[in-house]
């Protein structure tokens, strides 16, 4: 939960903010108190320690940037959003130099205030993940690139720390866990860009309007997602072998194109016969089987989207004939693509209930 306080001498702007629909829609923000006496600001901040403080400037009140600087230097964890009248560059610059997180012009636009509050949340969440969870996050990433095996233990340690640090607050803990999950995904993709083709991005991204999950459900979801990442790393670690690296990487990078032994050989400037021979020798798998395996794995990710038609999936992975694609997919998985897609939809709908 992000706690928000307001200072507003006359109270008009504060009442406008209090009546905004935002507070009923976002149950992870709570407006705690409205202060009208500037002499009570420090007492309030010291006793309540809000995450966000909205400071409404009144004309001719004399609440200068020096006072703001004192607040931001004494209460480092509080993000101050200044709500003022001035639009001049010099004034706005002074406010930011004094430590304000954001500057909004009166009258306050609800959408702009909402965006500002959410940005505060994003900064707080990512800062915590990068600074407080980094060692455990690094351990999980290293484990994935080593082929997995310790995901459950490491994930339990990460989630346990989140719940301890965020005082068991269910909403905050889930939002921070989502932020951490997305952060880990981005690092995985940054280090091995080809992984993006074989992991369903929506599994790792923050979802607005989410349903509240229990701690055990969050851990189960993490384990499923990151075990899948480990599985893909293990499956395609063959492409890190120097003899077939260029060949394997070309296939996974160009998986959404129409590929053949000849086109791949041309793409890596090698003879087709040599590509076929060396790939089989190093991996124990024929090049054609590998190429088909890569395309089927890519198709599995695309089939997570229940709105995609089978012919669209086939076309995306480079098959001009959807019937041939369906036959190939069934041979590899034991399921027709449409059946597999339906199974996935039912499975993930059930998990989200």
TrEMBL record:
<protein>
    <submittedName>
        <fullName>Helix-turn-helix domain-containing protein</fullName>
    </submittedName>
</protein>
<dbReference type="InterPro" id="IPR020449">
    <property type="entry name" value="Tscrpt_reg_AraC-type_HTH"/>
</dbReference>
<dbReference type="InterPro" id="IPR009057">
    <property type="entry name" value="Homeodomain-like_sf"/>
</dbReference>
<dbReference type="InterPro" id="IPR011006">
    <property type="entry name" value="CheY-like_superfamily"/>
</dbReference>
<feature type="domain" description="HTH araC/xylS-type">
    <location>
        <begin position="245"/>
        <end position="343"/>
    </location>
</feature>
<keyword id="KW-0805">Transcription regulation</keyword>
<dbReference type="InterPro" id="IPR018060">
    <property type="entry name" value="HTH_AraC"/>
</dbReference>
<keyword id="KW-0238">DNA-binding</keyword>
<dbReference type="Pfam" id="PF12833">
    <property type="entry name" value="HTH_18"/>
</dbReference>
<keyword id="KW-0804">Transcription</keyword>
<dbReference type="InterPro" id="IPR018062">
    <property type="entry name" value="HTH_AraC-typ_CS"/>
</dbReference>
């Amino acid at each position: 939960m992000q706690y928000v306080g307001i200072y507003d001498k006359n109270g008009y702007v504060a009442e406008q903010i209090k009546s905004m629909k935002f507070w009923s829609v976002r149950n992870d923000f709570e407006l705690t108190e409205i202060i009208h006496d500037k002499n009570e600001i420090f007492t309030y901040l010291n006793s309540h320690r809000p995450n966000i403080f909205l400071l409404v400037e009144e004309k001719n009140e004399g609440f200068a940037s020096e006072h703001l600087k004192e607040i931001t230097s004494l209460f480092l964890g509080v993000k101050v959003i200044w709500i003022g009248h001035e639009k001049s560059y010099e004034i706005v610059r002074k406010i930011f130099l004094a430590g304000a997180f954001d500057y909004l012009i009166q009258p306050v636009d609800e959408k702009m205030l909402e965006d500002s509050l959410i940005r505060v949340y994003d900064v707080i969440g990512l800062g915590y993940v990068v600074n407080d969870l980094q060692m455990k996050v690094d351990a999980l990433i290293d484990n994935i690139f080593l082929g997995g095996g310790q995901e459950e233990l490491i994930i339990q340690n990460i989630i346990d720390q989140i719940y301890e640090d965020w005082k068991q607050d269910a909403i905050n803990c889930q939002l921070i866990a989502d932020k951490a999950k997305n952060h880990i995904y981005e690092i995985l993709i940054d280090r091995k860009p080809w992984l993006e083709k074989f992991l369903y991005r929506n599994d790792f991204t923050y979802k607005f309007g989410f349903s509240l999950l229990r701690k055990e459900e969050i851990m189960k979801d993490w384990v499923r997602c990151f075990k899948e990442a480990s599985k893909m790393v293990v499956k395609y670690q063959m492409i890190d072998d120097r003899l077939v690296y260029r060949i394997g990487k070309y296939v996974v990078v160009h998986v959404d194109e129409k590929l053949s032994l000849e086109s791949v050989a041309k793409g890596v400037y090698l003879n087709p016969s040599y590509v076929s021979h060396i790939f089989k020798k190093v991996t124990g798998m024929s090049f054609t089987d590998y190429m088909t395996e890569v395309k089927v794995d890519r198709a599995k990710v695309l089939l997570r989207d229940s709105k995609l038609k089978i012919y669209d999936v086939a076309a995306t992975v480079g098959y001009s004939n959807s019937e041939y694609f369906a036959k190939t997919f069934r041979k590899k998985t034991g399921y027709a693509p449409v059946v597999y897609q339906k199974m996935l939809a039912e499975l993930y709908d059930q998990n989200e209930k």
